[in-house]
Design a protein that fits this description.
mainly beta; single chain; six-stranded parallel β-sheet; twelve-stranded mixed β-sheet
Length: 192
């Protein structure tokens, strides 16, 4: 990441080795902040749990992640995500997690500059006060997104054209709320 300061309490996978069939369970990750010595020109990125190259068939469950970068305004140099499988992290199960108060996305799938993620499952998760979206799907292929609740974000699920064009992404029984929309009422159900 060049000069960008990176804060990742749990990190698995890399270009030098695989992270295969691990269980990441019952962790509480909160209150990651940007210290004054991290100057704006350098940028800052925080992810509570991040998977990278060849982090496959892992289970991430029953974790609580929140208040990552509270008070920081989002831009491409100051980003926080709760759970972030990136760059060819395939066939992972992300279930029964609670993520709140992040700047970019509570859950984020891959990134524009890396390869597709194939076959990840997002099941029974909660995300609120997620900044840009509850789930951001940058390069998703054959993902299953089921029984999740997203609220207090700009959008429930954001998909790029690449994820839309990829085959097999499946959505069912997800709920979305936005504060102030008629007293924080249910605004959408996708895939029901």
């Amino acid at each position: 990441n060049g000069d960008i300061y990176v804060n990742r309490p749990i990190f698995a996978g890399s270009s030098v080795g695989r992270a295969l069939r691990n269980l990441i369970e019952n962790n509480t990750i909160t209150d990651l902040i940007k210290d004054a010595y991290v100057v704006p020109a350098n940028g800052w990125e925080a992810a509570g749990i991040r998977l990278d190259v060849d982090a496959d068939q892992n289970t991430i469950q029953k974790n609580t992640i929140g208040r990552l970068g509270s008070g920081i305004t989002w831009d491409f140099f100051n980003r926080t995500m709760g759970i972030f499988p990136e760059n060819g992290s395939d066939a992972n199960i992300i279930r029964e997690n609670v993520v709140f108060d992040v700047t970019e996305g509570c859950y984020m799938e891959s990134s524009n500059s890396t390869g597709n993620n194939v076959g990840n499952q997002y099941l029974n998760n909660v995300g609120y006060d997620c900044g840009r979206a509850g789930l951001i799907m940058m390069r998703s292929d054959n993902a299953i997104v089921r029984n999740n609740i997203f609220s207090e974000s700009i959008t429930g699920i954001y998909m790029t054209d690449i994820s839309i064009a990829n085959a097999g992404n499946s959505f069912s029984d997800n709920l979305y709320w936005i504060a102030g929309a008629t007293g924080s009422t249910l605004i959408n159900r996708w895939g029901v």
